[in-house]
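Inputs:
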Amino acid sequence: MLTTGGCPKTALSIKDALEALEGRWKLLILFALSTGPKRFKQISKEVTGITDKTLSKELKNLEANKLLKRNVYDTFPPTVEYSITEHGKSLEKVMEELHFWGLAHRKEIIGN
Amino acid sequence: MLTTGGCPKTALSIKDALEALEGRWKLLILFALSTGPKRFKQISKEVTGITDKTLSKELKNLEANKLLKRNVYDTFPPTVEYSITEHGKSLEKVMEELHFWGLAHRKEIIGN
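Outputs:
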């Protein structure tokens, strides 16, 4: 597998990544933001199946991990938008590989 | 981001992948098997922090998703070994990208 297959140090960085991205929602939220900043309701609509409670929790976690930024605009009433950070954008390759693998997995398991 | 940024079809395949790999353990178990077939106790030792109950559940799930194979040998007493399948090996690039991103994330968040 990996040229460093089984190496404990590699396992540690994979574990770091998996902990930061844990669950099925975080990457999908960042993927929704990859086309531009969005408001809560827009994200909720694009990430099919997520509840408002979970989305709210995940947005806070992603902000704490510097993967997105919460921008408050001084309008009346105030508007809030979420945008992906440079660090969030650095997940592009991970998402690409998950996309390709997801296609292969669907073919392998579901057979179409 | 992805050239197809925000495309609903791409989101679907990423979702498929995330569902199959959900949680922090599956990829670490497959990573442990990337150096060769192993017995339950060996995997449990290599995947730091996993409980026997969780490992047992995850192994069944990975087998159902054709990512690993459970081999029973006719010894006395019988021995059981788990090995990664070709489909499991196809996760190599995902793991590689997670490894690189995990290193960058540690630097960004923890600063070392």
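Remarks. The mean pLDDT of chain B is 91. Chain B touches chain A through 49 residues (CB under 8 Å).
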